[in-house]
Amino acid sequence: MSQTRARHTATTTSRARALRARLFSASAWSEAEPTWAAVFAGSGSRSFFQSADWVGAWIETFGAELNAETVFFDGDDGTVGAALLTTGQVRLALVPLRRIHLHTAGEPEADSAAVEYMAPLHLPGHSEAVHAALGALVQARTWDEFVLDGVAEEALEALLRAVPGVTPETEWRPTYVVDLARLRREGVRYDSVLSRNTRDQLKRSVKLYRERGEPTVAFADTLEEARAWLQELAVLHQQRWEGRGLAGAFASGRWRAFHERLITRAFPRGGVQLARVSAAGATIGVLYNFVHQGTVYFYQSGFRYEEDNRLKPGHVTHALVIQACLDRGLDSYDFLASQASGSRYKQSLATDTRRLAWTVLRRPTVRTQLISVLRRLKRLVRPLQGMRASPDVRIVPSPAAL
Q1: Given its phi and psi angles, is residue 245 left (phi above 0), alpha (psi -120 to 50 degrees) or beta?
Q2: How, if at all, do strands 332-337 and 167-179 pair?
Q3: What is the 3 state secondary structure string of the chain?
Q4: 233 near 301, Cβ under 8 Å?
Q5: Residue 386: pLDDT above 80?
Q6: What is the mean pLDDT of the chain?
Q7: Among residues 351, 377, 24, which one has the least CA distance to residue 182?
Q8: 289 C-beta neighbours (distance < 10 Å), count
Q9: What's the CA gap between 12 and 138, in Å, rounded?
Q10: Which residue, 238, 233, 204, is CA-closest to 315?
Q11: Tell me, what's the pLDDT at 397?
């Protein structure tokens, strides 16, 4: 076994069988990638974010810094599961917390690739054993927080069972979806299922664009074209965000580097979609999407905004691309998870809603308990600060405090 390969091999036991864990460092990804790809294919996973293209691009960009380890779970008949673990440390209120992240997460927030639909990979019939093995591996390590980003409900339940005795804190975020397969079965166009208000706004906006020329959808055919369209998207995206005094996603050089690697890997295999909507040769919007097993994942966008607020470049771009995906035989268009501030337009364009969990599992360590005390103190101080801010209230110390 080479030095770049498994750092150690551990054996973990579930009710039915024992699984051995093999760990590969970030520098050994080229050695681990074929096995990951095989487990991904055999698992039937519907998540692009678990593909070897996504994982490989992420490890090449962030893996060494975050001590990323690819873990394979082997049974008597071969490899039946896979996962990725990263380790690092963050400071909350000056308290250093040791964190383990599951899957491609843990990079600085400004560089975040924003992984979703995350879970350990496992072959059919091996879910319980793989989750138990992963749980045992994680429990054997030293950490304060185990972080799970973008987890579906059923996967979260399995992970919580695998790591008992910890306190979970979960934030649920909605993810809005267009069920293209259902629209196809019903024989209806996409715009026919939108609310009257959304449909009216869309029709008015399309009519205004038609005065310049018929809005059309095009998809990048070559890797060179995809890269060029992503650059155009980046310019439009940054103009919008920088105009608001914000950095924008493309301000991060490492974020750009990750997606350049990802497009190089995935576009030739149909995993990346660049869609451009234009009228009379002028761009209305560009979308950067992922595609896997009939699902289109909307990831990033750039729209050309104008002074006329009747023009809705985002609505028009998404609506025309969604209809084109319906015509192409795709089954689902997923807007991915949203913060509350960014969900209204996605909700108005979707037909269905799901939810994903962002969960932190906390061990009762001295560090996490100290953070808990500091948070309670902060909640107590806030009302006192509000009282000090009021000219009608005086805080007088008790005699015992003098």
Answers
A1: left
A2: antiparallel
A3: CCCCCEEEEEEEECCCCEEEEEEEEHHHHHHHHHHHHHHHHHHCCCCHHHCHHHHHHHHHHHHCCCCCEEEEEEECCEEEEEEEEEEEEEEECCEEEEEEEECCCCCCHHHCCCCCCCCCEECCCCHHHHHHHHHHHHHCCCCCEEEEEEEEHHHHHHHHHHCCCCEEEEEEEEEEEEEHHHHHHHCCCHHHHCCHHHHHHHHHHHHHHHCCCCCEEEECCCHHHHHHHHHHHHHHHHHHHHHCCCCCHHHCHHHHHHHHHHHHHHHHHCCEEEEEEEECCEEEEEEEEEEECCEEEEEEEEECCCCCCCCCHHHHHHHHHHHHHHHCCCCEEEEEECCHHHCHHHHHHCCEEEEEEEEEEECCCHHHHHHHHHHHHHHHHHHHHHHHHCCCCCCCCCHHHC
A4: yes
A5: no
A6: 89
A7: 351
A8: 23
A9: 11
A10: 204
A11: 31
Q: How far is CA 43 from CA 98, 126, 390, in A?
A: 31, 10, 61
Closest CA to 357 of 105, 101, 148, 86: 148
CA–CA dist 105, 175 (Å, integer): 19
Summarize the confidence of residues 356-380 as an average pLDDT: 82
CA-to-CA separations, 230 to 21, 52, 118, 280, in angstroms, rounded: 39, 22, 25, 20
Instruction: Report whether 85 contacts 140 (CB < 8 A).
Output: no
For the stretch 266-277, pLDDT in tens is: 999 999 999 999
CA angle 382, 386, 392 (to 5 degrees): 155
List Cβ neighbours of 18 (8 Å cut-off, separation of 6 or more).
11, 12, 75
pTM metric for this prediction: 0.87
Q: How far apart are the first and last CA of the chain?
A: 70
Q: What are the tens digits of pLDDT across the range 260-300?
A: 999 999 999 999 999 999 999 999 999 999 999 999 999 99
Query: 292 with 312: CB under 8 angstroms?
Result: no
Classify 106 in phi/psi space as left (phi over 0), alpha (psi -120 to 50) or beta: left
Residue 314 pLDDT greater than 80, yes or no: yes
CA separation for the pair 117, 97 (Å, rounded): 25
Amino acid at 68: A
